[in-house]
């Protein structure tokens, strides 16, 4: 799996570049391809990664629901890198791999609870252009999860939209993170 790099791959130079390479290899076993692209504009890269560090501390939404929502968003957009990395993270977080694999085609799967299905539907509805979230689904999620968790869910889906659209525009594709869990990238089923 190799990226096409519409925005060329930057060399991770200097002490900062070497530090990023060391840290990412330690965390994930390899340097994410989108880091090479972002390294061209360090203030943008630092702002995005700084925000990502803050996002990682949010805890109002169940982490499994958060994973399902971000993966459904990535699948709806068609970001193979996001799905690849999402599978890897789900594997390392101990999520049920068979269930994670079904996220892109959740509508045809019997594995998801009614709440998980609502979260997946919400992620897809938010990702549609134009967004198609309806009042009934939003109210149902607020009643079940609480307003604070729905705010977090909404922001996570919006953030995954940003990630996936950046990766697609930059030409960043799956790079084999999911090989650790032996899950082939699933193809989205259409409703």
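^ Assign residues to that structure.
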């Amino acid at each position: 799996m190799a990226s096409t790099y519409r925005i060329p791959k930057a060399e991770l130079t200097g002490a900062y570049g070497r530090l990023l390479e060391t840290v990412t290899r330690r965390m994930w076993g390899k340097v994410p391809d989108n880091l090479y692209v972002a390294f061209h504009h360090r203030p943008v890269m630092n702002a995005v990664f700084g925000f990502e560090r803050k996002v990682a501390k949010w805890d109002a939404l169940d982490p499994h629901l958060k994973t399902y929502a971000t993966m459904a968003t990535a699948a709806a957009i068609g970001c193979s890198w996001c799905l690849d990395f999402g599978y890897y993270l789900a594997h390392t977080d101990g999520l049920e791999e068979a269930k994670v694999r079904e996220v892109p085609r959740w509508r045809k799967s019997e594995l998801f609870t009614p709440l998980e299905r609502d979260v997946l539907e919400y992620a897809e509805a938010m990702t549609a252009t134009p967004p198609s979230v309806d009042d009934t689904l939003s109210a149902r999620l607020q009643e079940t999860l609480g307003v604070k968790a729905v705010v977090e869910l909404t922001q996570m889906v919006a953030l995954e939209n940003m990630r996936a659209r950046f990766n697609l525009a930059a030409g960043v594709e799956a790079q084999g993170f999911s090989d650790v869990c032996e899950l082939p990238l699933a193809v989205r089923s259409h409703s």
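Residues 39 and 137 are 39 Å apart (CA to CA).
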